[in-house]
Design goal:
heterodimer, A: 544 residues, mainly alpha, MetI-like fold, 23 helices, globular, disordered C terminus, B: 408 residues, alpha/beta, 38% helix, 14% strand, disordered N terminus, ABC-type Fe3+ transport system, permease component (chain A), cell membrane (chain A), transmembrane helix (chain A)
Chain lengths: 544, 408
C-alpha cells in the first residue's frame, strides 16, 4: 500500500458518520439489486432441482459419466486458459513493449479473433482439418490418407483458445500500458537484467490483468456449447443442453448447479490472485512508460508469431466461408429464406440495447467493488460473473420461466432477450469499468468535494469523464459478445424476429452452408468495428 | 360471400395480375363485397367454430389455374415420370384467411416455408409468421407457456412425433377436426386427433454400393453389431432427434437391457459419431463410411444433387430400424385462430401439399394416392414396427440409456 493510499484509508475511517454513508448505502442497494436481478434465471434452476429426491440426486452425482464429464470440463477449462495465457501475454508484450514492426496493425489483428463466434470457428476448423476437409483433400494425392483427428479434446482446446485468448491479450496489454516505467528503471539501476526486471517488477504488476483476462477465458470456456458440440467433446454444457431439451429439467439443473459450483471455485481462485497483487491495482499517476525493449535482429522474426495466430484465427474462417459461398447446393436450392439486411439491423439493435443497459448496471457494481471497503463490497461484482459462466440455454429457459410467471406482459418482446444478454455479459462491462475507476485518483474526487460540489455532481464532473474510456470499452465488449450469442437468442427472440445468428443457424440446419457465408461475414464485420472502439480507447490512453 | 361470385369473376378478369385467378378473385371480392363479408365472419374473420361451410366451388375453379401442380413439385432426375398426385385437392378446401402464428420445428424449416409462401400467395387474406427452432426446444418452450396459459402460436409443426406427444401430454393442444385428419391412415394420427402426421420419415441404412452388397446388411437391426462387413465402417448421429426416436423405439420393442447392449456393441464395433444425418449420408456416398444410420430422405438429397454417387438404402424388417416417424402438426390450445389453424393443417394434407413434401423434401406422403419419389418402397411395402408413435415422447429413459452407454 502506498503512502497516499494509507492516508486515504485513514481519512475515510475518520469520516465514518458523514453523509457519504448514505451514499454508500444507496450504492450498495443499487449494486445488490442488479446482482439479484442477473441471478434470477438461476432461481429457475434451483426451483427445478428442488423436485429431485435426494437419493436420485446422489445417484446422478456419483455416476461414472458424471465424473468423466466433470473431468473433461476441468481439463478443457484449464488447457484453454493456460494456452490463452501462453498466447495472449507474449502478444501483449510484443505489441506494447517492443520495437516489433507494425505494432498497431498486429494489436488490431491480435484482438480481432474475439469477434468470430467460436461455433463458426469450430465449423471452419472441421471443414479445413476434418476427415473430409480441405487439408485432407490437398494431402490425399500426396499419399497421406490419415491426418490426426480434429475432433475431441485437442480440437476443442485449439478452437476455444484461438477465439478467446484476446481476453487475456486485451487485459494484459491494458495493464502493461498503465505500468509505471520508473519502477522498471529503478530495478534496472539496481543491477537487474532486463529479464529479471520483467520477472520481479513487471510481471507481478501484470498479474491482476492476466488474471482478469484468464477469468473471462475460463468462464467463457465453461459456458460454451457450440465448440464442444461440433468437436464432439463431452462437457457440462452438452449434457445440460441434451437434458433440458429432453424436458428433464431436473437432471439439467443438477448439472447446472455443479457448473455454478465450478464457477465459484474459479472466481475464488481469481480473487486470490487479484488480492495478492492488490498493491499493483494502483492509481496510475506516472506518465512514464517503461522503455521499449529492442529486439535487434529478432525484430522481424517476432512478427511470425502474431502472423501465425492471425492466419489460423482470422484468415481461415472467412476463407472457408468464401469457399461455401462458391459451393452450390442444387439439391436444396431455394430451401432457406433469403438473407435480409433487416437481420443485421435486428442484431445491432438488441446488442446495442444490451450494451447500453449493461454499462448502466455495471456502474454501481464496479464503483462499489473498486471503492468500497471490505470483501462484502465486492460481492455483487463477483456474483455478476456467475451468469457469464452459465450456458445460454439455461439463461434462456430460466428467463423464459421468469418472464412467463412474473412479467407476462414482457414475454415475447425484445426486453427479455436484451435482459438475457445483460445476464450473460454484464461482467465484461463491470471488469473494464472497475479497472478504470481503480485508475482514477480518489483525491481528485475529494478535491472536488472540498470545492463545494455535491457528491453526484463531483462524480459526474470528475470521475465519469476519466472512466468513460473504460465504460465505452465495456459497452463494445458486451455488444460484440451479444452479437454472436446463439442459444438464448434462438429461444427468446420475439415472433418473426430474426437476427444474424438465428439466420445462420437456420441455413446451417438446412445444410445450405453457402447461405451462411454472407451473414457470417457481416456479423464479423460489424463486430470488428466495435473492436476498433476498444482499441481506439487505448490510443487515447497512450496520448495522455 | 356466395352472392358476389359473379361480380368478382367479372371484376377479376378485367385486372391483370401476375398471379392469376384465385388471388385476383379474392382481391376483387374483398373490394366488391365488404358488406356481404361482414355477415360471414365465420368464413373470413377467423372464427373459432371450425365451420367453414361448403366448399367454394367457383373460387376453386379459379384456383385451378393458380395452383398448377408445378408450383408444388420439385425438380431433378429423381422425379421423372411421376404420376399425378391423387387425394383431396386444395381446390376443394375452404379458403385461408387471417394471420397464423406457427412454431416451426427443426431443420427443414426453410423448405416448409416455401410451401407456406405459396399458400400466402394464393390466399391474399392469409399471412403467417413462423418461428423456427429445434423441435425439442420448442416442445419444452410450449410446455412452459402452456403452464401459464400464454401460448404464442396457433400451430406447432415438429420434425418428430416425440415432440408432438410431449406437448399433448402437457395439455397444450386441442384436437383437429375429424374432417381434417380423415384422409390420413390411423397410424399417423393421435388417437384423440391431437396431432396428425404431415410427412413421413423412415429410418434406413444408407450404404455405399461400391463397398457393400445389400446381402451384407442384416434384415434385423439387432444383428448389425455382429455383422462382419460392418465393423469399423458405420456412422451415427446420437444427438440428432430422429436417432433418439429410433433408440426410443428400440427400447419399447426390445427392452432396456437389449437396447443398452446394442448401444455398447455398436461402440465396440467402432461406430463413429457425426453431427447430423445428412453428413452421414454424404460420408457414405463418398466412401468415408461404408454404411450408417439415417433418415431415408438424406440419401435422396445426396442423390438428387449427385446422381452418380454409389449410394443406396437398406430397410430392416419390422423393428426399430424401419420405424416410420412423422413430421406432424398440432393445434395449440389458445382462443385465437382455432378455425384457421385447423383448415391450414387440412391444406398441408391436400394432394398438392403432399406432392410438395414428396418431391421437395423426399418425405413419405401421408396420402395413399401420392407416391414417394424415385424407387423408394411405398409405406405399405416397408415392414414397419408395430409401435404407437405417441410413445416416442418418452425420451427420458432413452437419454439415460445413451448416457449410460457413454454415447451422449
Amino acid at each position: 500500500m502506498s503512502v497516499s493510499d494509507r492516508i486515504d484509508a485513514v481519512s475515510r475511517r475518520f469520516k465514518r458518520r458523514s453523509p457519504s454513508d448514505v451514499q454508500t448505502l444507496v450504492l450498495a442497494l443499487l449494486a445488490g439489486s442488479v446482482a439479484v436481478a442477473v441471478l434470477t434465471p438461476l432461481l429457475w434452476v434451483l426451483n427445478s432441482a428442488r423436485s429431485v429426491p435426494i437419493d436420485r440426486f446422489l445417484e446422478i452425482l456419483l455416476r461414472q459419466t458424471t465424473f468423466d464429464i466433470l473431468l473433461n470440463t476441468v481439463v478443457l477449462v484449464v488447457a484453454v486458459t493456460a494456452l490463452s495465457i501462453l498466447i495472449g501475454v507474449p502478444l501483449a508484450v510484443l505489441t506494447a513493449q517492443t520495437d516489433m514492426p507494425f505494432r498497431r496493425l498486429f494489436t488490431v489483428l491480435a484482438a480481432l479473433p474475439l469477434v468470430v463466434p467460436s461455433y463458426i470457428g469450430a465449423f471452419a476448423f472441421v471443414s479445413a482439418f476434418g476427415p473430409r476437409g480441405e487439408l485432407a483433400t490437398v494431402l490425399a494425392p500426396l499419399g497421406i490418407e490419415q491426418i490426426p483427428s480434429i475432433y475431441g479434446l485437442g480440437g476443442s482446446v485449439i478452437v476455444l483458445t484461438l477465439f478467446t485468448y484476446p481476453y487475456v491479450f486485451l487485459t494484459t496489454r491494458a495493464s502493461l500500458l498503465s505500468i509505471d516505467g520508473r519502477s522498471v528503471e529503478a530495478a534496472r539501476t539496481l543491477n537487474h537484467t532486463r529479464l529479471a526486471a520483467f520477472r520481479r517488477v513487471t510481471l507481478p504488476q501484470l498479474k491482476p490483468g492476466i488474471a482478469a483476462g484468464a477469468l473471462l477465458v475460463a468462464l467463457y470456456t465453461l459456458s460454451d456449447f457450440g465448440t464442444p458440440a461440433i468437436m464432439q467433446f463431452d462437457v457440462f454444457t452438452r449434457i445440460i443442453y441434451v437434458r433440458t431439451t429432453a424436458r428433464q429439467v431436473d437432471i439439467a439443473s443438477i448439472f447446472s448447479i455443479l457448473l455454478v459450483g465450478l464457477t465459484v471455485v474459479i472466481l475464488l481462485a481469481e480473487s486470490r490472485i487479484e488480492r495478492g497483487g492488490e498493491t499493483s491495482a494502483y492509481v496510475n499517476r506516472g506518465t512514464d512508460r517503461p522503455g521499449v525493449v529492442r529486439l535487434g535482429r529478432w525484430r522481424w522474426m517476432a512478427t511470425l508469431f502474431p502472423l501465425a495466430i492471425a492466419a489460423l484465427a482470422l484468415a481461415l474462417p472467412p476463407a472457408i466461408l468464401l469457399t461455401w459461398l462458391g459451393r452450390s447446393t442444387p439439391e436444396l436450392a431455394g430451401a432457406a429464406v433469403d438473407f435480409q439486411w433487416e437481420f443485421a439491423w435486428n442484431s445491432v439493435l438488441v446488442s446495442g440495447l444490451a450494451a447500453g443497459v449493461s454499462v448502466l448496471a455495471a456502474l454501481p457494481l464496479a464503483y462499489l467493488s473498486a471503492r468500497g471497503e471490505g470483501r462484502l463490497a465486492s460481492l455483487p461484482e463477483r456474483a455478476s460473473y456467475v451468469g457469464y459462466a452459465v450456458p445460454g440455454v439455461i439463461v434462456g429457459f430460466g428467463l423464459l420461466s421468469v418472464a412467463l410467471n412474473v412479467t407476462p406482459f414482457l414475454y415475447g418482446s425484445i426486453a427479455v432477450l436484451v435482459f438475457a444478454y445483460v445476464v450473460r455479459f454484464l461482467p465484461q462491462a463491470v471488469g473494464t469499468t472497475r479497472s478504470s475507476i481503480l485508475q482514477v485518483d480518489p483525491q481528485l474526487l475529494e478535491a472536488a468535494r472540498t470545492l463545494g460540489k455535491p457528491p453526484l455532481a463531483a462524480f459526474r464532473k470528475i470521475v465519469l469523464p476519466l472512466v468513460m474510456p473504460g465504460i465505452v470499452a465495456g459497452a463494445a465488449l458486451v455488444f460484440l459478445t451479444s452479437m454472436k450469442e446463439l442459444a438464448a437468442t434462438l429461444l427468446l427472440r420475439p415472433f418473426g424476429f430474426e437476427t444474424l445468428v438465428t439466420y445462420i443457424w437456420q441455413v446451417q440446419e438446412a445444410a445450405v452452408y453457402g447461405q451462411a457465408a454472407v451473414p457470417a461475414l457481416v456479423l464479423i464485420g460489424i463486430s470488428a468495428l466495435s473492436m476498433l472502439v476498444i482499441l481506439g480507447r487505448e490510443r487515447y490512453d497512450v496520448k495522455e | 360471400m356466395m352472392t358476389t361470385d359473379d361480380d368478382t369473376r367479372d371484376d377479376g378478369s378485367t385486372s391483370e395480375r401476375h398471379r392469376p385467378s384465385r388471388r385476383r378473385f379474392l382481391a376483387a371480392g374483398g373490394v366488391a363485397a365488404t358488406g356481404a363479408l361482414a355477415g360471414c365472419t365465420g368464413l373470413f374473420g377467423g372464427g373459432d367454430d371450425g365451420d367453414y361451410g361448403p366448399p367454394d366451388y367457383d373460387a376453386a375453379d379459379a384456383a385451378m389455374e393458380a395452383m398448377a401442380i408445378s408450383e408444388f413439385q420439385g425438380s431433378g432426375a429423381i422425379l421423372e415420370g411421376r404420376p399425378a398426385p391423387g387425394g383431396r385437392s386444395m381446390e376443394d378446401l375452404p379458403n385461408l384467411s387471417g394471420e397464423l402464428a406457427i412454431y416451426l420445428g427443426g431443420g427443414e424449416g426453410g423448405l416448409y416455408r416455401d410451401l407456406f409462401d405459396v399458400l400466402e400467395a394464393v390466399y391474399p387474406d392469409f399471412s403467417y409468421t413462423a418461428q423456427p427452432k429445434p423441435s425439442s426446444e420448442l416442445a419444452a418452450q410450449i410446455a412452459e407457456e402452456a403452464q401459464t396459459g400464454q401460448l404464442q402460436a396457433d400451430v406447432f409443426i415438429s420434425i418428430g412425433a416425440g415432440s408432438l406427444g410431449a406437448v399433448v401430454e402437457e395439455g397444450a393442444t386441442r384436437p383437429l377436426t375429424a374432417e381434417t385428419v380423415e384422409p390420413v391412415p390411423g397410424a399417423f394420427v393421435e388417437p384423440d386427433n391431437n396431432w396428425v402426421g404431415i410427412a413421413g420419415r423412415a429410418r434406413a441404412i444408407p450404404y455405399n454400393t461400391d463397398q457393400l452388397d445389400e446381402s451384407d446388411l442384416p434384415d434385423s437391426v439387432m444383428d448389425i453389431p455382429d455383422a462382419d462387413p460392418l465393423q469399423n465402417a458405420m456412422g451415427w448421429a446420437p444427438t440428432y432427434g430422429a436417432f433418439q426416436d429410433f433408440v426410443t423405439a428400440m427400447r419399447l420393442l426390445e427392452g432396456e437391457d437389449a437396447t443398452l447392449q446394442w448401444l455398447e456393441d455398436m461402440q465396440a464395433a467402432g461406430i463413429q459419431s457425426y453431427d447430423n444425418e445428412f453428413l452421414i449420408s454424404d460420408a457414405v456416398s463418398t466412401g468415408e463410411l461404408d454404411a450408417g444410420f439415417a433418415n431415408h430422405y438424406y440419401a435422396m438429397r445426396v442423390l438428387n444433387g449427385s446422381p452418380d454417387r454409389p449410394l443406396d438404402l437398406h430397410f430392416t424388417r419390422g423393428d426399430a430400424g424401419s420405424l416410420v416417424n412423422v413430421s406432424g402438426a398440432a393445434l395449440l390450445d389458445r382462443d385465437e385462430n382455432a378455425g384457421l389453424a385447423d383448415v391450414f393443417v387440412r391444406h398441408l394434407l391436400s394432394a398438392e401439399a403432399q406432392e410438395f413434401f414428396a418431391t421437395r423434401t423426399y418425405a413419405y406422403p401421408m396420402l395413399p394416392g401420392v407416391q414417394p419419389v424415385g424407387d423408394l418402397p411405398t409405406i405399405d411395402e416397408l415392414e414397419t414396427p408395430d409401435i404407437d408413435l405417441t410413445e416416442l415422447s418418452n425420451t427420458g429413459p432413452t437419454t439415460d440409456l445413451l448416457t449410460e452407454a457413454g454415447v451422449l
